[in-house]
Amino acid sequence: MSKNIIKTWCLRLLPVLFFFIVFVTYYHFPAVLQRCISNRKPLNNSKSLCGGWQTQKKWESLNFNISRQTQLFLQLEDFFWRERLSKLTLPYGLKGSEQMLLKVLAMTKSYEVPAQIKKLECRTCVVIGNGFAIKNSSLGSTINKYDVVIRLNDAPVRGYESDVGNKTTMRFFYPESASYDPTKHNERDTLMVLVPFKQQDLRWLKEILYNEKRVRKGFWKPPPQIWQGDVSKIRVLDPHFLWQTAGTLLHIPLDPKSKQNPVHPTTGILAVFVALNYCDVVHIAGFGYPDSRSYRQPIHYYGYETMKSMKNSYHDVNHEAETLKRLEESGAISFLHQRL
Ligand SMILES: *[C@@H]1O[C@H](CO)[C@@H](O)[C@H](O)[C@H]1NC(C)=O
Ligand SMILES: *[C@@H]1O[C@H](CO)[C@@H](O)[C@H](O)[C@H]1NC(C)=O
Ligand SMILES: *[C@@H]1O[C@H](CO)[C@@H](O)[C@H](O)[C@H]1NC(C)=O
Ligand SMILES: *[C@@H]1O[C@H](CO)[C@@H](O)[C@H](O)[C@H]1NC(C)=O
């Protein structure tokens, strides 16, 4: 064949080759693209907060000098061999409460966070305080986007959805702050997390779980005598967290022999500390009290309580506010609205 013939054939084949390439690309490119995209996790709105966040590093930068603990709740199977639990009495340890706890945990049977949250590579959490600051904030839909929404005590949701959202992953409470019908302001799957401050708190739960005679003594406010919650959603927070919130985060002297009234962390700062252990992103809203001199200023986003009711409390709210500020400045938490 002469060079000319080869040249002509080549020229004729070129368009065919061209079409072939276009054809292959056209049919296979979307599949390739699809594979590339589906290899990456779909980014949800709150997930965009996760970028570049290295939880362990953040934790270490807080200089707590303790390791993070992501097992939040007490489990029947492991509390007997955990020696440290028996060194302190409640609220910071379980000395003397073991039998009561054994009965409670034997009845509740579940000790974990739901699997779909546990398996997340990056957990975004928001802790909703009950403070007046969240009123009219319109944060409801933002709050609902977090993987974990932690609420406190008996704070209502119905009627306040536009400001506080309506998702509740966990609710931290103690008997005096329990509501007799937990279904009203929670979801079906909400974990009801008992924070045991004293032995009576475990006794209260045991009496309800086993429908035993209720002992009313030992509470600063009468707790509900009936409790219509789902037993499988009850969890008991490991006292480790309250102990470390008091000692490591707030530096409260933990000497039990001290004659002074005990100062204990609020459920709010405790929940923030738990979130720092468990979550990759920690945001908070509804924290902060008004100036202690403004006695008429409401303190909650619901109801009519004022600073007056805080006068004789076992909490040091100013010290807690400073601690939150410090955590914010170090980048460990952020406020969803302006800090009070
Ligand atoms: C993103 O959100 C959708 C629905 O809102 C959910 O099905 C999916 O699991 C979420 N993805 C991640 C990675 O959380
Ligand atoms: C950290 O803890 C260890 C043991 O608990 C102790 O020896 C050490 O002094 C602590 N470091 C700081 C900076 O507190
Ligand atoms: C919240 O909004 C309502 C209606 O717009 C208004 O009447 C009320 O004063 C606001 N409360 C606060 C605390 O801003
Ligand atoms: C929360 O509110 C949204 C929108 O109003 C609604 O679709 C959803 O069912 C509510 N969820 C719960 C648990 O009440």
From TrEMBL:
Catalytic activity, as annotated: a neolactoside nLc4Cer + CMP-N-acetyl-beta-neuraminate = a neolactoside IV(3)-alpha-NeuAc-nLc4Cer + CMP + H(+); a ganglioside GT1c (d18:1(4E)) + CMP-N-acetyl-beta-neuraminate = a ganglioside GQ1c (d18:1(4E)) + CMP + H(+); a beta-D-galactosyl-(1->4)-N-acetyl-beta-D-glucosaminyl derivative + CMP-N-acetyl-beta-neuraminate = an N-acetyl-alpha-neuraminyl-(2->3)-beta-D-galactosyl-(1->4)-N-acetyl-beta-D-glucosaminyl derivative + CMP + H(+); a beta-D-galactosyl-(1->3)-N-acetyl-alpha-D-galactosaminyl derivative + CMP-N-acetyl-beta-neuraminate = an N-acetyl-alpha-neuraminyl-(2->3)-beta-D-galactosyl-(1->3)-N-acetyl-alpha-D-galactosaminyl derivative + CMP + H(+)
Major subcellular location class: Golgi
Q: Which UniProt keywords apply?
A: Disulfide bond, Glycoprotein, Glycosyltransferase, Golgi apparatus, Lipid metabolism, Membrane, Signal-anchor, Transferase, Transmembrane, Transmembrane helix
Task: Tell me which Gene Ontology terms the entry assigns under biological process.
Answer: glycolipid biosynthetic process
Q: Give an example GO cellular component term for this record.
A: Golgi cisterna membrane
Q: Which CDD domains match?
A: GT29_ST3GAL4
Q: How does it sit in the membrane?
A: Single-pass type II membrane protein
**Enzyme Commission number(s):** 2.4.3.2, 2.4.3.4, 2.4.3.6
Q: Where does the record place it?
A: Golgi apparatus membrane; Golgi apparatus, Golgi stack membrane
Query: Is Membrane included in the keywords of this UniProt record?
Result: yes
What are the annotated disulfide bridges? 125-279
- Please name the Pfam families in this protein's record: Glyco_transf_29
- Spans through the membrane: 9-29
Any one GO molecular function term: beta-galactoside (CMP) alpha-2,3-sialyltransferase activity
Q: Signal peptide position in this chain?
A: none
**Pathway noted in the entry:** Protein modification; protein glycosylation
Which InterPro entries does the record cross-reference, listed alphabetically? Glyco_trans_29 (IPR001675), Glycosyltransferase_29 (IPR051142), GT29-like_sf (IPR038578), Sialyl_trans (IPR012163)
Regarding protein family, the annotation reads:
Belongs to the glycosyltransferase 29 family.
Q: What is this protein called?
A: CMP-N-acetylneuraminate-beta-galactosamide-alpha-2,3-sialyltransferase 4
